[in-house]
Design brief:
Keywords: Hydrolase
Number of helices: 9
GO molecular function, one term: hydrolase activity
Structural class: alpha/beta
CATH superfamily of the largest domain: HAD superfamily/HAD-like
Radius of gyration: 17 Å
Pfam families: Hydrolase
CATH topology of the largest domain: Rossmann fold
Protein name: HAD-IA family hydrolase
Strand order of the largest sheet: 5-4-1-6-7-8
Shape: globular
Order of helices and strands: EEHHHHEHEHEHEHEHE
Largest sheet: 6 strands, parallel
Number of strands: 8
CATH class of the largest domain: Alpha Beta
Strand content: 5-15%
Length: 241
């Protein structure tokens, strides 16, 4: 691996335990049978994709009538629900992700957000670091929700993020929880860490992740900037950010 100068983070499922999956599932009532909308289904068909693309994929795979025509209405209903849930504070930060992002910031890496969701900033401005700053303040660029010709697994969004932090793709590491995001990182020539919070280590490995962990505390930050990606020894302590 070359030396790494920047880290690009997905948001939902990586930094934040968000209500997106819940909103997609609850909004499905009236469009298709929500019984088939499992977490595994969400990860495979929705996570990491642009909203309208995800909506159409759900309706097509679950047999919703007139999927192409009704996908926009489904996406709008989901968005109204997610806006309400965010306003209510129905989300929380993953502590390991906060520590990891803060540690990379201290190590001198430039940080960028690159989620297909347009709600990233709304959540990250409400989450506080131990010193009182917002979690969003750690990031040098926020490309979340930026319109691109194709969503993940196309690398367009990640390439824009690399450009925003003035770093070549080869010197970027991407942190993702979805196979589509891992494939996008690799297609863009970037190193990829897969965070398996849902027991989906195999899916992330098969997508091409360079390292798969169940907690970002397991990633050795001290050697990361030098280009050595490895898991931390189990006995090594982790300090809060």
């Amino acid at each position: 691996m070359p030396s790494l100068r920047a880290a690009i983070f997905d948001v939902d499922g990586v930094l934040v335990n968000s209500p997106h999956e819940r909103a997609w599932r609850e909004a499905l009532k009236g469009f298709a049978d929500p019984a088939g909308f499992t977490t595994a289904f969400y990860q495979a068909n929705v996570a990491g994709r642009p909203r309208l693309e995800g909506a159409r994929a759900v309706l097509e795979r679950l047999g919703g009538p007139e999927a192409a025509r009704r996908s926009a209405d489904y996406a709008d209903k989901k968005q109204a629900l997610i806006d309400r849930l965010i306003e209510e504070g129905s989300f929380e930060v993953f502590p390991d992700a906060m520590r990891f992002a803060a540690a990379l910031n201290v190590a001198g890496l430039r940080l960028a957000l690159a989620s297909s969701s347009k709600n990233a900033a709304a959540m990250l401005t409400r989450l506080k670091l131990p010193d009182g700053r917002t979690l969003l303040s750690l990031f040098d660029a926020d490309l979340s929700g930026h319109e691109v010709p194709k969503g993940k697994p196309d690398p367009a969004l990640f390439l824009l993020a690399a450009e925003a932090v003035k770093t070549s793709p080869a010197q970027c590491i991407v942190v993702e929880d979805a196979p589509a995001g891992i494939r996008a990182a690799r297609a863009g020539g970037m190193t990829a860490i897969g965070i398996a919070r849902l027991g989906d280590e195999v899916l992330l490995s098969e997508a091409g992740a360079d390292l798969v962990v169940t907690s970002l505390d397991q990633v050795e930050v001290a050697t990361l900037a030098e280009g050595t990606l490895r898991a931390r020894a189990a006995q090594e302590p982790v300090e809060d950010a």
